Every structure is written in structure tokens, then in C-alpha cells.
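Severity: low
Component: inverse-folding endpoint
Summary: output formatting inconsistent between runs
Steps to reproduce: submit the following C-alpha cells with default settings.
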């Protein structure tokens, strides 16, 4: 059984909070027995384990600074930063060469360009499979979402998606394309995602674990 702090309140429903240190507080309506709090926690075991995973994934790495010898992710692989006196970015064997005068700007430019190149054929092939026509493809700098699909079916992806493994990029493409069919996260939407990308649960799990990519650059 989970340990938790019970707070009785003049309220109508039970609620629960998990703070950033992993402590659970249950807020119980004054009239309910304490056993209801135990049951509430048992019923929310999956929610708790998911929240704990998210907590564990929160920025275990320091922010990317663009320093010589630092490790940066690209399409699921780690590259060692080498600074050089050229303006362009070059991806070598296990190494990424960044411009010494502004390495982070160079890295972001690289992520944007290479992500777009990677996305284009994926979007085309999955759009054909799903029989949908996205109106536009762009790479933005959102920190709160990996991808989005506008009301007019324009697709936007965060450049930070370039840090993720290729199969995850593929999942996000399928996810956003399926929003052309369903503008929600209904069971019908997830069924469509599963049809075109059966491994979507693994990809969602990966994104939860790598959510800190959103914060390190
Ligand atoms: Zn969505």
C-alpha cells in the first residue's frame, strides 16, 4: 500500500496530488471513511505510476550549452560536440561539429533542417496510406507539444523532436495525420493511430521518458 497524507476537507469529491518529491496527498470529503482514500489510491495506481515516470524523466540532464565534449542527442543517437571555426554544422561518426561562435544557434538550425528532411518522406507516405492531405508542413519551436495539427490541417513539429529516435518521429507524424481524420483523442482516433502505427504505445512511453528533451534546449 502507498504511503500518503490524508487531509479531510469540506468537499464533495476525492482528489489526490503527487508533488515533485513523490509525496502523495489525498483530499477526502469529511463524511467519507479513510478506507475510501486507500481504495482511491488503488484505483489510480496506473495514474500514479505514469506520473512517477514523468517525474523521473524531468530534466535528469543539464541544459545543452554547446560546449566541446558535451553529448547531444540526434535521432536517438548521442553525438559528442566538437567546436570548429566554420559556420556550418557537420555530423561525423559519433561527433557533431558546431560553429564555435554560436554553437547553440548552429545546433538548432541543424535540428530544424534535418528534422524537416526526415519528416517530409514520412508525411508523404503516411498521408497517402491514410488518404489524407495535410496542407502545410513546418518545424517550429514548441516546448509543450511534439507536433500539432491545425484546424486547417497544417502540421507543425517541434525541432526538439529531432532529438528523438526515428520510430518516435514516425509515431508523431502518424498521430498528427490522424488528427486530420479525428480532431480529438477519442477511441476512434487511437484506433486510426494503431492501424497505421501499431507500436504507438512504445512511442508514447518513449516520449514520456524523454520529456526532458523539451527543457534542455
Ligand atoms: Zn493529439
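Observed output (run 2 of 3):
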Amino acid at each position: 500500500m502507498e504511503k500518503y497524507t490524508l487531509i479531510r476537507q469540506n468537499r464533495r469529491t476525492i482528489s489526490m496530488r503527487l508533488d515533485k518529491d513523490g509525496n502523495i496527498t489525498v483530499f477526502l470529503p469529511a463524511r467519507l471513511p479513510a478506507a475510501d482514500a486507500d481504495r482511491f489510491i488503488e484505483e489510480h495506481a496506473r495514474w500514479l505510476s505514469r506520473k512517477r515516470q514523468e517525474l523521473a524523466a524531468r530534466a535528469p540532464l543539464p541544459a545543452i550549452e554547446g560546449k566541446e565534449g558535451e553529448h547531444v542527442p540526434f535521432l536517438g543517437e548521442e553525438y559528442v560536440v566538437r567546436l570548429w571555426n566554420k559556420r556550418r554544422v557537420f555530423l561525423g561518426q559519433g561527433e557533431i561539429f558546431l560553429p564555435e561562435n554560436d554553437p547553440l544557434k548552429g545546433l538548432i538550425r541543424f535540428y530544424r533542417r534535418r528534422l524537416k528532411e526526415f519528416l517530409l518522406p514520412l508525411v508523404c507516405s503516411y498521408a497517402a496510406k491514410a488518404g489524407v492531405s495535410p496542407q502545410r508542413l513546418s518545424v517550429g519551436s514548441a516546448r509543450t507539444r511534439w507536433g500539432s495539427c491545425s484546424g486547417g490541417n497544417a502540421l507543425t513539429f517541434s525541432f526538439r523532436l529531432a532529438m528523438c529516435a526515428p520510430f518516435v518521429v514516425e509515431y508523431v507524424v502518424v498521430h498528427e495525420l490522424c488528427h486530420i481524420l479525428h480532431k480529438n483523442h477519442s477511441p476512434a482516433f487511437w484506433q486510426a493511430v494503431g492501424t497505421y502505427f501499431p507500436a504507438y504505445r512504445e512511442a508514447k512511453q518513449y516520449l514520456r521518458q524523454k520529456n526532458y528533451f523539451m527543457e534542455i534546449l
